[in-house]
Amino acid sequence: MRKVFAFIALLCIVCLNVQCQKAEIHMTDGSTYEIPTDDIDSITFSMTNPFNFETKTVKLNSGYEMPIIGIGTYLLTTAQAEESVYHALKVGMRLIDTADIYGNEVGVGRGIRRAMQDFGIKREEIFVTSKLWTSSFNNADREVDERLERLGQDYIDLLLLHHTAAYDEEAYQAMERGVKAGKIHSIGLSNFYEDDVDRIMRIATIKPAVLQNETHPYHQSRSVKAHIAKLGTILEAWFPLGGRGTGIKTLSQHEVIIDIAQAHGKSAYQVLLRWHLQCGTIAIPGSSNAAHIAED
Questions:
Q1: What's the CA gap between 183 and 94, in Å, rounded?
Q2: Within the chain, where are the H helices?
Q3: Residue 15 above 70 pLDDT?
Q4: Handedness of CA 98, 103, 109, 110 (dihedral sign)
Q5: Of 68, 70, 244, 261, which sits with the fewest C-beta atoms within 10 Å of its C-beta?
Q6: What is 70-123 written as a DSSP string?
Q7: Lowest mean pLDDT among 4-8, 29-33, 88-92
Q8: What does the alpha-carbon distance between residue 138 and residue 296 come to, in Å, rounded to a whole number?
């Protein structure tokens, strides 16, 4: 066991590779390792992964259980979103992610209702996420109701502010009112980083349950993940298979990822998604291909 923890400590140092002050960790075998102090929270969080891999869920700071893998619907048309959500629910996914700006909430709602009817899935088994777009922040109370109407749902499991913008503090407070009214179960943020998270917390009465940011092996979000860990906020990855000018093709052809996939008889994409889950990050890969959805 001592060797395991020594290896974890050493691995964290190699992976972090940042220039900052370091703290010494003294192992029981007498060896000493240095770990950047700025990353101690992140390391501790990753060593105590909150995910339940048997139920495939994580308990949010709001008290609700959220699936740790699901389907994203960015760039899907209304018709594509309906079919993708339907197939995702058919193969066992229970987390669905959409947004006002995607323009496909109606399709997402249709896919959910079809799957519930055809497969006997109960609404409480499905976790629906949507987001408020920046242009509606100054009228967010009405937009909360608009999200419910477009989705055809009585409540939204998770509602996020899609991006920092003018009136985002007022919009966050509107989401809090939605929670109190029973229209929303959990609230959170998307495309927010440390300073803006702190700014929102100065006016918030409910902590964000989830922060959805671009995250993948080329953009690992370590600092923001450590920052939100003290709030009990869970990181969720958009572009979980790659982005930032690299794209999924680059990552899926990465030598290390290919070697891991071959060693375990999995696809490169499955390895990438497992990496997210083992890091304690929720993943929502998007697809309109039924076979790819089943593979994910």
A1: 19
A2: 2-16, 40-47, 78-90, 105-119, 140-151, 168-180, 194-201, 222-229, 247-252, 255-264, 268-278, 290-295
A3: no
A4: negative
A5: 244
A6: EEE-TT--HHHHHHHHHHHHHTT--EEE--GGGT-HHHHHHHHHHHHHHH---G
A7: 4-8
A8: 37
Question: Of 33, 64, 86, 102, which is the active-site residue?
Answer: 102
Tokens of 280: 């304690």
Task: Give the up-direction half-sphere exposure of residue 231: CA atoms within 13 A in the CB hemisphere.
Answer: 25
Residue 102 known to be catalytic: yes
Count other Cβ atoms within 10 Å, centred on residue 144: 24
Eight-state DSSP code of residue 36 = E
Q: Measured between alpha carbons, how far apart are the two ends of the chain, in Å?
A: 33
With 0-12 / 13-18 / 19 or more C-beta atoms within 10 angstroms meaning exposed / middle / buried, residue 66 is: buried
The answer to whether residues 273 and 240 touch, using CB atoms and an 8 Å cutoff, is: yes
Looking up tokens 């969080």, which residue turns up?
45
| pTM of the shown model | 0.85
Q: What's CA 154's distance to the chain center, in Å?
A: 23
